[in-house]
Structure formats: structure tokens, C-alpha cells
Amino acid sequence: MDETTWHRHTQVVLMVASLAYLIAYSWRVIADLTGPAFVIATLVILITWAVFIVDYLVRLSLAADRWKWFRTHLGTLAIAVIPVFRLVLLLRVLTRVPGMRPSAGTRLRTQIMVYGAGAGTLLIYIASLAVLEAERRAPSANIHTFGEAVWWSCVTITTTGFGDFYPVTAAGRLVGVAVMFSGIALAGIITATLASWVLERAARNRDDAEPATRGQVRELLAKVDALAERPGGAADAD
Q1: For 162-176, what is each residue's pLDDT tens digit?
Q2: Residue 92 CA to its chain's centroid (Å)
Q3: Exposed site from 127, 135, 163, 230, fewest CB < 10 Å?
Q4: Pick the CATH number of 96-205 from 2.40.30.20, 3.30.1300.10, 3.90.1520.10, 1.10.287.70
């Protein structure tokens, strides 16, 4: 079995595992579980997490060029570390509009916007759970409810930072650093995508000012070669 076959056969299992991870983690934190319920939720989290780690290691071992596969599948590594991000792939259906055949650039921008919004929403949710779990029982903590944690995540990911809620533990501050850098990255990606869309709209119906792409040049050269190979092609051209 090669890496592609393994990936194709495990997609549904991994999606279910990601959903189970999210439900168990949400249940453990929001319900503030203790006793047997806490143990059950933690076991589900660990088992589903182990599924993603095993999947990543198997795919890496099956790859023909492991170093190249590692460099080109950093997103897979991120999903193995935070399994819930696999749920972002469910948004793929929103990037396809029935009856429309968008250009490659439009399709790419749509995917970036949809996946970026989905990843940002999941990041806010997971960060809220993580910071609440870290801060809830800490001395002098000011984040005690899920609502307060969500508010903190929103103002942190947008780099607003009102300062009314803030983490006091090392784990909570580590979550804050991750959210801040992720927010900056998402803002940069979204801004670049919007700028690309604006430039395309501005250049519409002004294609005489646009430089030819390599694909267009190759297509033109192929047509010239085909014309030259036709009997009497040179004479027709004259």
C-alpha cells in the first residue's frame, strides 16, 4: 500500500475522530468534568489524538521521498498536533459554486477566504477552551467562564487587546501567544487575498495592459509551430 491509498482509505475515519475529539474536549472543559466523566472524556481525547499521530507517522513512512513529503505536508502535521483543524476540510463544499467555472485565481481566493474563516473560527473556539481550562482555577485569574474565554480569544486574535481579560498562567499565556501570531497570519492572508481581488477587478477589460503568462506564451508558440508544419504554412503566412 502506498501513501495515497492509505490516505484515501482513512479520510472518513479521521474526520469522525476529529469530531469526537472536539466533542470530548468541549464536554470536559465547558462542563468542568470531574470523576469518571473526566476520565472518559480524557480517554476519548487521547485515543483520537493518537489516531492522528499514527496516521501521520504511517503516511510519512509510506512516502517515496520522506523529506519532500514532510516539507510539502506541514498542514498534515498541524492537523496531527491539533486534530480539530481537520474539520476545516468540510468547508470544501462552500468553495464550489454549482454552474460556475471560475478562473484558477478566483478559485484559489475563494478557498483561501473560506478555509481562513473556518480555521479562524475553530482557532477561537479551541483557544477559548484551552485558556479556560488553564485559567479557571488559577489564583488571581480573571477568566472564569466560557463566555469570558471566547471574548478574550476574539480580542486577542484581532490583536485588539482590551485588557479586561488576560491569562495569568504560563499555559494560558502560551495559548495567547499562539492566538496572536495566528491572528496576524490570518489577517495578512485575508488582506493579500482582498488586494488580489481588487487588482483583478481593476484590470478587468484592460487585458491589453496585462503581461502574458508562461502558459499563454507556450500556447501561442504551439499554434505557430503547428501552423509552420502545415503544407504551405509559410506561404499562407506571407
Answers
A1: 888 999 999 999 999
A2: 11
A3: 163
A4: 1.10.287.70
